[in-house]
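User: I'm new to structure prediction. If I give you an amino acid sequence, what do you actually give back? Let's try with this one:
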Amino acid sequence: HQHCRNNKQSTSFPTYTSKHRHDMMKVIFVAATSLLLRSSVFSGTFGIAAAAAAATTTTADAPLQKARISCDANYSTSCGRTNSQWLASKVSSELAARLDAAGNIPIQDLRDITNGLLNEEKGFYPFIVERSTGVLVGHGVDATFVGLTVEQVFEKIGLGFSDAENLHRRFNQAADEGGNFVQYLWYDHDQINSKLAYVMPIGDKYYVGVGYRN
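Assistant: Good question. You get back a string of structure tokens that encode the predicted 3D arrangement of the chain. For your 214 residues, that looks like this:
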């Protein structure tokens, strides 16, 4: 502006066309997306949840948390990640210590899971799946899921279009890695939501997951 005044040129600001505005919005969007992906909530390499939730990957994360924090599983916060890790680790270690000689979880422990005895307040609950078959053997909030495969559960809740078979593979991959977050679609509160679950192995035959809405 001062340069224009010194040269006795027009001091009016340039006129922005719709193309200029469009280009500026693209720059702002890219910058904002970059900041979100670098934040603690979106850290890792998992993709955006698509309609079929097939492109999402498991993500490495910080060491397991040692304490629970008070927060709600229905909100996307770093606290949700902490509690999911904490409860999955707790259930995994407790049940692994009680496996029978064949590596199976005792029936009473599975009943305790399904009866909600290992749930935490404000929406954090475990689900347990048999790794070889994809059959749920315990679920902290819905006993009708027990005995169904992951694919059958998704059909039951109206998400049959989602690639549940691929989701089971990604859950297994997270368990193979000793524990990881997996992002996927889930139907609750009368709407489809994106969820992020921390999945860990229980011995060689099962995995346990605990998630929150993100």
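You can read the tokens as a compact description of the fold. Here is one thing that stands out. The radius of gyration is 23 Å.
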